[in-house]
Amino acid sequence: MLFQHAGSVAATFSTLLKPSGPSSNSLTLVGVGPGDPELLTIAAVRALELADVVAYPVGREGGTGMALTIAERWLKPEQQRLPLLFPMVAEAGPRIAAWRSAADQLAQVVGKGSKVVLLCEGDVSLFATGSYVQLALRERHPDLPFRLVPGIPAVCAAAAAAPALGLDLPLALQQEGFLMRPCPDSISPLERLLQMADDSHTVLGLIKVGQRWPWVRTVLQRRNLLEQAVFAQRVGWPDQWIARAAEVSEDTKPYFSLLLIRQSWPQVLP
């Protein structure tokens, strides 16, 4: 009797903790990770399986978009595809208009009774287009329920892939900090950032390195960090490239690239 009672309590507790499924929300924002379809979570795949409409961001009319390419393996032919245009421009006006338009389109489709998924590259809350749509939905359609399914950020996937090449770079240990942010646009802010990270025992994950790489490499070389920094490009994709920063020449013009920079280690280690 005791074991039966314990089992019943455990089952009830599990039910209480189980997150509401896609059936209880008409809109789900899903993080699909950095590139590898195998890195989608079970929750993400389940949300995709139950969707009537799969929305995804594109940078231009007629484009496919990276998020759709990642999730394609898990989609069914009968599911409707809804591209949402998010122009890659610096001006605020077109971007704001795009976020609001996306929110309105999603609300309209949900209003017709469809279960909708919005694909977001990486994690749905971390430098994500979906986050702007989320805020626009909250402002413009406050009664529309939605839920978020987290995904794997590129910095985590890069740190996980690096040991296969003999590069061990845990993102944080013990009392260390970890800071993920876009790479600074010039030398002085990067120098200050590196010094702050060194002083505070913080590991850096710098995304959007791109064409900044030649002078970033110079800064790392000056601080003797090239051998211990990890460079990663197109993480999770078939042409993924992960290497020590020292192995990446200054004339490289990386795209979708990031750096993991650890300047010290804790005293207590195996």
Provide key terms for this protein.
alpha/beta, 270 residues, 5-stranded parallel sheet, Methyltransferase, Cobalt-precorrin-4 Transmethylase, Domain 2, 5-stranded mixed sheet
What would your notes on this structure say?
This protein is about 35% helix and about 20% strand. The protein has eight helices and ten strands. Helix 4 (about 90-110) crosses helix 5. Strand 6, helix 7 (about 185-200) and strand 7 form a beta-alpha-beta unit. It has a five-stranded parallel sheet, with helices on both faces. It folds into two domains: about 20-150, Cobalt-precorrin-4 Transmethylase, domain 1, CATH 3.40.1010.10; about 155-260, Tetrapyrrole methylase, C-terminal domain (Methyltransferase, Cobalt-precorrin-4 Transmethylase, Domain 2). The protein is of the alpha/beta class and about 270 residues long. It has helices spanning about 1-15, 40-50, 65-70, 90-110, 130-140, 155-160, 185-200, 215-220; strands spanning about 25-30, 55-60, 80-85, 115-120, 145-150, 175-180, 200-205, 230-235, 240-245, 255-260. The model is unreliable at about 1-25 (pLDDT under 50).
Summarize this structure briefly.
This protein has 270 residues and is of the alpha/beta class. 35% of the residues lie in helices and 19% in strands. It is built from 8 helices and 10 strands.
